[in-house]
Amino acid sequence: MKKEPLFIAFSTQKGGAGKTTLTVLMASYLYYVKGYDVAVVDCDYPQFSLKDMRERDLKNIERNPHLRRAAYEQFKRLGKRAYPIVGSRPDHAVEAARPFVESETPPDFVFFDLTGTVNNMGLIKTVATMDYIFCPIAADRFIMESSLKYAGILNDTLVTTGKSNIKGIRLLWNMVDRREKTDLYDIYEKVIAGMGLEVLKTSLPDSKRFRKEGAEEGDRPLFRSTLLPPDRTLAKGSGIDALAEEILEIVNR
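The line above is the sequence of ParA family protein; the predicted structure tokens follow.
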């Protein structure tokens, strides 16, 4: 019996909340470190951020002996190539994922990098097909107001009404400044609970490491890549491993 891939999206209405970075980090961690099969649908039309990242990664590996060696050793260890990334308009995302779903060996997860607009019926239909949505939030008034409005609309119109495939929406604290007083987070979490929403136990720090990609030369460690997992040294304290484990527990994989 063929396995049923889970459709997962890191999605929010506010730009700059980190959804694209989280998509690639989770896809790469689950694929290269945990051994799950993954596919990604880049719906960031028309710029296609993840497809562009894949092209940069390929160029850097081609020109950088250090990265090329790391990629070769990884291929020998895993015995499989990089996970696929396809671009799609947001309203055609499910159709773009269909070849993966209907293949002889479908992936465990299909990640969707969705835009946050909820006033487009085509996009709403795509969002409704997701199994799980993880909405990054930050202790910033504009990000919080936008993200809570977005998550609240999805929860009220799609989840609680049963008019979607969504099994759960979880909020994720991202870009957390450990020096800030926790009172602010406590206040926000009371508001979130009052809306009938849940927050993940894992939170991710505000750290420059999340922006570290590969380069055409040098042996500096990378964190964000579509072809390699996060460097182990940089991964320590990042929360990525804990986030992956919490998500796997939620989705029962």
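Note on the example: The longest strand covers residues 168-176. The beta strands are 6-10, 38-42, 85-87, 109-113, 132-137, 168-176, 198-205.
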